[in-house]
Specification:
With 659 residues, this protein is mainly α. Helices cover 61% and strands 6% of the residues. The chain is built from 28 helices and eleven strands. β2 (421-425), α20 (430-442) and β3 form a beta-alpha-beta unit.
Length: 659
């Protein structure tokens, strides 16, 4: 049986993978593409696992039981240890809805389907992903699913010979790459999380294993350095706007492949990667990856504002320190079988089964009890404000297939009455649907609504999104406005987070607008498109004699409402009013960011006799503050979307006129 020589440069490459991931999740802008570390890990895993499989299959020594035992010893001890450490913090610090999601993720992680769980649990208004302690386990699930199916595939095909199997692996990897290129445009979330569109990255590593079987690593200074260069370019120049996985993912994947194939020990690349520091970090990289996300997530949950650079840097270092502890006293003993309890295969599986069952039971309790809601950490009267989005499932973010089969609009109010009002906008309109539906029903009237997240209500406009909603937004923005003419609608209400596409706000969040599918990512260009499309939209509606109402946006807060109420409930012992005043946005700061855009909107509106605006900021702002809420209710769902009660409050005086 061929035994693969130890390659210290591969451990160094692991360090190159894990450190950017940690720094990216810490929020360090220099590592804007640090997420590609996961892709590097996938290639390395595919290479190492396939090298072992080929050797054992060729030597006739392959055992599926022994293979899974090695995987269990490698992965489960550290994973279960980190999961166990997360439980008490989740119990004491998470509100029932978040604790329910955490409990569900415990089940998913234990069954190695967390990638499927996080794909299915995608929710535009869910708490920030960065506050989920186990979100990062999706990549472990992808690898474990690969480990389940790939050995069985090789075992079934090996009788045809190594070369035919190699070409099958190449073909399957090519199909997976093509699927990922289709997927990011049409099913972006599934494309990101699921094995079929990630398999080609592991397949790239497998191809390396076939090419280097029973051969020394090729030595090529230029190609190995180019590989490291591609990885470095991806880490420092990619950002969240780059669709992943896609053809762009070839940068880190091909870079890793070049290092694996051509970084022989005499190359400068191998010598760099084989440095003692990088190899040391590489050896503990698995534990470091496991620790960093829970540390960051709980730090963000514990803090009212985002933790400072100093805090996140310290936590990054802490994740590496904890990684050494768990590597030294958890990973290593289990891998070596140092204790009699884990010496045999049957005992390893038995211990793993006990821990898995324990997590399943605990997670099942958290799910069935709705996150143990009897803990009542946040007053029950605030639950609806902070977690309920009425009509989100029925009337928001339609897929392209649903739009084509059911149309652009959702009808609300009295279903027996022809609608006379249409509401078009982005996610900000969702806050108003519940209050308006009740008002329309009470008056035996109805309205129609079309809402797409991150999509301003401008005719024939694209917004930059690295997913299928870029196309949906433009489709809606062209077709829906033209359909209004045919539907006999008399009044159109436009609702949007206007600063999101034009000037930016206190959060710095921004989406770029454009005239075509390829949206230039320049803020000045986006503002120019915003100004022009806003006016063109009003002209179009005026041409057909619609009465138009433009809602000014609510002030965008610096603090997430959920985080504030959670924080003051759990950690603050001082005066609630003082805490609320400190967290709420200064009026002066809101005016600084929004007044120039508000003036532009008002100037455009005055040129059209049939258009007017509603500005309800005086209902949210008083004195020197624009308030997050009060002791009885939260005006916001997060930092920019109004809660249902907040929306009901601000439109109370305008309801008769909106009818």
């Amino acid at each position: 049986m061929f035994l693969m020589n130890y390659r210290p440069e591969i451990d160094g490459l692991r360090a190159v993978a894990v450190l950017p991931v940690i720094f990216f999740h810490a929020g360090f802008s220099w590592f804007s593409g640090g997420f590609v570390g996961v892709d590097i890990f996938f290639v390395i895993s595919g290479y190492l696992i396939t090298s072992i499989l080929i050797s054992e299959l060729e030597g006739g020594t392959f055992s599926i039981g022994r293979f899974y035992e090695r995987r269990a010893r490698r992965i489960l001890p550290a994973l279960f240890f980190v999961m166990l450490c997360c439980v008490p913090f989740a119990w004491f610090w998470l509100q029932p809805p978040e604790f329910k999601e955490f409990s569900q993720s415990l089940i998913a992680v234990s069954l190695f389907v967390s990638n499927i769980f996080f794909w299915r649990a995608e929710n535009y208004f869910a708490p920030a992903a960065e506050e989920n302690p186990l979100l990062h386990t999706w990549s472990l699930a992808v690898e474990e699913q690969f480990y389940i199916f790939f050995p069985l595939l090789l075992l079934a095909l090996w009788r045809f010979g190594r070369n035919p199997v190699f070409y099958i692996v190449v073909a399957v990897s090519g199909l997976s790459l093509a699927l990922s290129e289709y997927g990011w445009r049409n099913h972006a979330t599934a494309n990101f999380y699921l094995l079929p569109t990630r398999a080609w990255e592991l397949g790239a590593g497998a191809i390396c294993a076939f090419l280097t079987y029973k051969k020394s690593t090729y030595s090529n200074q230029l190609l190995s350095a180019a590989g490291l260069g591609l990885i470095g370019y991806s880490i420092f120049f990619f950002d969240k706007s780059v669709p992943f996985p896609s053809l762009y993912t070839l940068f880190p994947v091909v870079g890793t492949v070049l290092v694996v194939l051509f970084a022989a020990r005499d190359t400068l690349t191998a010598k760099l990667l084989s440095s003692r520091a990088l190899v040391g970090i590489g050896l503990i990289s698995f534990s470091a990856y496991l620790w960093h996300q829970p540390l960051f997530a709980f730090a963000r949950i514990r803090s009212l504002l985002d933790p400072s650079f100093q805090v996140m840097f310290a936590l990054s270092f802490t994740s590496v320190a904890l990684a050494y502890v768990s590597w030294r006293w958890v990973e290593q003993p289990f891998r070596k079988g140092d204790h009699s309890l884990i010496r045999s295969r049957s005992k390893v599986f038995a211990v793993a089964s006990v821990f898995t069952l324990s997590f399943l039971i605990f997670g099942g309790y958290g799910h069935i009890s709705d996150g143990s809601n009897n803990r009542g950490l946040i007053m029950q009267r605030l639950h609806k404000d902070l977690y309920v989005r009425e009509f989100q499932e029925e009337c928001f973010d339609f897929s392209m297939s649903r739009i084509e089969s059911q149309g652009f609009f959702c009808k609300l109010g009295d279903q027996d009455v022809k609608p006379s009002v249409a509401i078009i906008g982005d996610s900000h309109l969702l806050s108003f649907l519940g209050p308006l539906t009740r008002e329309f029903e009470s008056r035996e009237k109805s309205f129609i609504v079309s809402g797409v997240s991150g999509c301003p209500p401008f005719i024939d406009t694209y917004v930059f999104r690295p997913d299928e909603r870029r196309e949906i937004c433009n489709f809606r923005n062209f077709e829906a406005f033209h359909q209004l003419v045919e539907l006999g609608i008399k009044k159109v209400i436009l609702i949007s987070r206007w600063t999101y596409y034009s000037t930016g706000d206190v959060t710095g969040a921004f989406l770029f607008l454009g005239n075509d599918y390829e949206v230039p990512m320049y803020q000045a260009n986006s503002r120019s498109v915003f100004d022009r499309k806003f006016e063109e939209t009003l002209q179009f509606l005026s041409q057909y004699n619609f009465e138009v109402v433009v809602f000014h946006q609510a002030p965008v807060q610096k603090v997430d409402a959920r985080r504030f109420y959670n924080n003051v409930t759990l950690f603050e012992q001082g005066n609630f009013r003082e805490s609320l005043e400190e967290a709420s946005l200064d009026v002066a700061e809101h005016q600084e960011h929004y007044r120039p855009l508000a003036n532009f909107i008002e100037d455009k509106i005055r040129t059209f006799a049939n258009v007017r605006s509603i500005n309800f900021n005086d209902r949210l702002c008083s004195g020197t503050k624009c308030w997050l809420g009060n002791a009885e209710s939260s005006y916001y769902l997060d930092d920019n979307h109004l809660s249902n009660s907040g929306a009901a409050m601000v439109i109370e005086d305008f309801v008769p006129d909106l009818m």
